[in-house]
């Protein structure tokens, strides 16, 4: 008989971590969206606990993931810029679970570097296909990145507790206007924040984004059903979050709530009262110590977050009075920091000379191209001009209670002098405590801030109108001919 490792028993909970790609918290039915179709996530919330004040340490794909797995703020991971790998010397909670006798597996999007691969006993990484036109690539399978989730759960060993990292590619761009994703939303289902114009192209982009969320939601239902079929649902903790907000202007890559506020739903029938709601602050940096704690393992000393396991049974339990978030290079250079309490958000733009340009995949999409058209016409509102503003405000202060879309900067308001002073102090204290630093040099942009095309290539020959229309039909805006740069230096 094989000898078990110390501390490994059948009583320890299984852990299923589901992470969406580029999905904002308020684009889930459970959070009050009136039209989006997310029945399985809604059910997950009804059977578990829904967190209303959950945040990410950054609004960029790979830095968010490496921060979660290492339990460190992005600036301490040495992987703070997009697509930088987590170094070998950084320990992860997954490796700790594996060492303690958990079987560990990942299926779907990976994006954390080669050093982390060995932390997983099984790694079913999504596979790419090159797109014939443009820079955006298609995935093998249905494009969701969820194809192997059930295979991973079915293939796990049944004699030990397990940890499964299930990573969707939905709802990452590009949004294809073809049959690759079921079309279940119309333009009339779309609700827009005030910082994007209500053009037909913007609404179209949003409706396709909704469709991808619904496709992911269907896979989440399959995961729940599989756990029930295996008879392990009661003692399995499921946590659903996103890596950052929706890939639209003023959301992804920003430190506004559209970028860093995340859906956060936990189901654990053995411990959590169904239908619970938690209104206290929580951060993605708290995931690593919590997963280790519920597994009966002491969190690593270097972890910078807090164990939130007590919050799962006590909705009044508070573990923090603020969250800290950061923005680094993501396609374009930037360096921004933010502190958020339940009442105020303070944003410090260290590179205020640079505009708040959306990520390059956003720039190649319908919404940005439509906004550029409206910008040329002079029809954008002040809120919609935020991405074009240059220079930006060095400091921004928002009263979240009265201004949830963060449109009214109170930093120069004489009535908020004390609030500004307090939030400045919070930021300074956190930067000092976490050894945050300002880089000595800036990183050059990888893409044009108008077209989303690479800056390191000469764009020749100029695509024909037919090629442009073909790309548009496929859901890939190659670029708008009015804004093409035939030579980008």
UniProtKB/TrEMBL annotation:
Domain (Sulfatase N-terminal) ranges: 13-297
One family name in Pfam for this protein: Sulfatase
GO MF annotations in UniProt: arylsulfatase activity; metal ion binding
tRNA-binding as UniProt keyword: no
UniProt KW keywords: Calcium, Hydrolase, Metal-binding
Gene3D superfamilies: Alkaline Phosphatase, subunit A
Family under the similarity heading: Belongs to the sulfatase family.
Name this protein carries in UniProt: Heparan N-sulfatase
């Amino acid at each position: 008989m094989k000898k078990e490792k110390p501390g490994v028993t059948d009583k320890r909970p299984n852990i299923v971590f589901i992470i969406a790609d580029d999905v904002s918290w308020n684009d889930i039915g459970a959070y009050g969206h009136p039209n989006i179709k997310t029945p399985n996530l809604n059910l997950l919330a009804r059977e578990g606990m829904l967190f209303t004040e959950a945040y990410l340490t950054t609004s960029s794909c790979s830095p968010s993931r490496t921060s979660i797995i290492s339990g460190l703020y992005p600036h301490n991971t040495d992987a703070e810029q997009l697509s930088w790998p987590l170094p070998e010397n950084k320990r992860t909670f997954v490796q700790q679970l594996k060492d303690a006798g958990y079987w560990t597996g990942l299926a779907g999007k990976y994006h954390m570097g080669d050093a982390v691969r060995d932390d997983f006993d099984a790694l079913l990484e999504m596979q790419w296909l090159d797109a014939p036109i443009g820079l955006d690539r298609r995935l093998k399978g249905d494009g969701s990145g969820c194809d192997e989730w059930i295979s991973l759960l079915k293939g796990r060993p049944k004699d030990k507790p397990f940890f499964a990292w299930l990573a969707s590619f939905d709802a990452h761009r590009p949004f294809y206007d073809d049959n690759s994703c079921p079309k279940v939303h119309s333009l009339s289902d779309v609700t827009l924040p005030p910082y994007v114009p209500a053009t037909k192209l913007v609404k179209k982009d949003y409706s396709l984004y909704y469709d991808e969320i619904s496709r992911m939601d269907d896979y989440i239902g399959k995961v729940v059903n599989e756990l029930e079929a295996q008879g392990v649902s009661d003692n399995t903790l499921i946590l659903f979050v996103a890596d950052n907000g929706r890939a639209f202007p003023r959301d992804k890559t920003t430190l506004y709530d559209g970028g860093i506020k995340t859906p956060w739903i936990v189901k654990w029938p053995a411990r959590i009262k169904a239908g619970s709601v938690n209104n206290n602050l929580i951060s993605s940096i708290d995931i690593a110590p919590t997963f280790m704690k519920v597994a009966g393992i002491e969190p690593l000393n270097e972890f910078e977050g807090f164990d939130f396991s007590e919050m799962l049974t006590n909705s009044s339990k508070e573990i923090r009075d603020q969250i800290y978030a950061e923005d680094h290079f993501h396609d374009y250079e930037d360096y921004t920091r933010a502190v958020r309490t339940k009442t105020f958000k303070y944003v410090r733009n260290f590179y205020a000379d640079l505009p708040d340009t959306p990520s390059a995949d956003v720039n190649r999409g319908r919404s940005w191209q439509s906004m550029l058209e409206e910008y040329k016409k002079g029809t954008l509102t002040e809120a919609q001009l935020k991405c074009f503003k240059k220079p930006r405000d060095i400091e921004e202060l928002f009263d979240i209670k009265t201004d949830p879309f963060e449109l009214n900067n109170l930093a120069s308001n004489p009535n908020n002098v004390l609030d500004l002073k307090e939030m400045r102090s919070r930021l300074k204290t956190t930067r000092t405590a976490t050894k945050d630093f300002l880089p000595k040099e800036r990183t050059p942009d990888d893409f044009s801030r108008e077209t989303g095309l690479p800056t390191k290539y000469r764009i020749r020959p100029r695509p024909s109108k037919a090629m442009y229309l073909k790309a548009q039909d496929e859901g890939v805006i190659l670029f708008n001919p009015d804004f093409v740069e035939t030579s980008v230096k």
